[in-house]
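Example (one chain per record):
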Amino acid sequence: MTNQQTLRKKLLDLDNGNYKAYRDIQGSYEFPDFTLIIDYVQGDPFAAPSKLRVQVPYTVTGFPQELYENPIREMALRDFLTRKFDRLAYEVSGRRGTGKSGMIAITKMGQEVLERTSAYLIKLAPPATKPEPGTNPALQRAKPIKVTNQKGVEVRLVVGLPAGGRRILGRQAAEMLCDDIPYIVHRSLKYEQLDAEACRRHVETVEDADWLRKQLPEKNLVAFVANGAILPRRSGVDHRPLSSEEVVPFKSPPSLEVELKCPNQGKISGMGIPQGVTLIVGGGYHGKSTLLKAIELGVYNHVPGDGREFVVTDPGAIKIRAEDGRSVAGVDISPFINQLPQGRSTEEFTTDNASGSTSQAANIVEALEAGLRKSNSEEGNSEEGTTTKTTSPVLLVDEDTAATNFMIRDRRMQELIAKEQEPITPFIDKVRHLYAEHQVSTILVMGGSGDYFEVADKVIAMENFVAQEVTEKAKEIAEQYTTGRTAEGGEKFGDIRGRIPQPASLDHSRGRRDVRLKVRDVDEVVFGSEDVDLSAVEQLVSKDQVRAIGAAMVYAKKQYMDGNRTLLEIIDAVMADIESKSLDVLVPFPQGDLAFFRRFELAAAINRLRTLTVK
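Predicted structure:
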């Protein structure tokens, strides 16, 4: 009897049994073309679904080596296979009882191509041994396994094992695991069954975008928008490209046009946005925010046909906005705000309910804290508390989501309200200091104040979705119509000081032994007893990223938060572990619903914990 037949018999024998008896099927089963590994079995039909893996040898998959010959191609191929497998699983699976019964899935995929745990190209190996009796398999790390020399594709999926009430539906389960999954594997993980041209195009598109992004520093650019790009989206909840005949493909102004090279498309021309301070101006509904949104998501690669495949941005680009009501823990916002009522400190600013201006100031300083640090070669020569460049964030700001009093204080307001009565130093008086001292560039959408003309290096005007460079004209206007405003805030930006999170302020268990994490959507994670609001962290695009961030917060607390390490040191350590060991280091057993996040989003989640305390 084959393992496939053994599994089928087990499931039929369990028919109508208590649902918890499904745990008897945990283990590894050899099918004719692949291995099915059942890592975790749900204890209830309404609980989180069971976690499975399929491993298919290269001799069966038949993928040409050119599709995975370097890391970026391999990631793109894994993304393509995940999408194909998940799409077929959705078509095949259906309701087979109560709760999550009948579900076969991996994860919800968007327009972005992310590093995920959903599929891997691996050395095949036997599964981890079963957990010891009486232990919770969800909390037990897999034991070391002996790796074979045979390589293959591993796909991780979730399955809702069928139930009638809380009784096992064994026949339906046998159909799912022994018939449906082999069909999905055959149709999605064998090269001969795939659209070879679509697969190749997917891999090459991602590789080209990655090449473009890597060329930005040597060209002194922070972003590149290819000619012909389609920037508008269908709606706020549908991120596919707008397909109307009225859509205007992007075209670079001649003065900003650059040509970059990539391995598959060859030369690609488009608009290069240089380092420094860049304004995007124009009338309402002419494409300013649409352009900034494309730049904001240019930190990710995109699928072919997205329209923004070749819109690429510096990986350190961070969207900054006002965030009324957020909590702030011990952040030095004194570069922007020097005093508060009742003598409250702005060097260690703490609040449960930040205003628009204080929240935007905190968001900027936290982004700098996560991205700027002292280099080893210069530590001995630097004054205490100062920083030198290793990673320079790029700030992305849209006036529509910014605090007006934080962005600008014009001449008339300066005359009416004396500086000694106004604690806020507006962003306009700090933006150049940021670039001069820390090499932090800014791209700013501004439609309401021409005062920024004087501090901008480049000015791009959008008119009916057509970009024009108007820097010279803007400078002429600034000279002709002087504002007469007085620069505020001194000659320096100010220090970026590190903070040390206190371990006791991060409680992921809600007073119990078990870790309590739950992802409700891309904008919220439940961490212990706290709902962490991430709605203003606009560059998160997948629930899988949020799930991974929650796991990383738990991992950081257990591994590195000792009351002595700064937040930057903790984030550095976590990101280094992920880079060397993959996202799997964050979880106790293999699962396919995690996606890569940046250091900035991890810092943002920790900073938004209302229980967070620092020193």
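Caption: Residues 96 and 382 are 65 Å apart (CA to CA).
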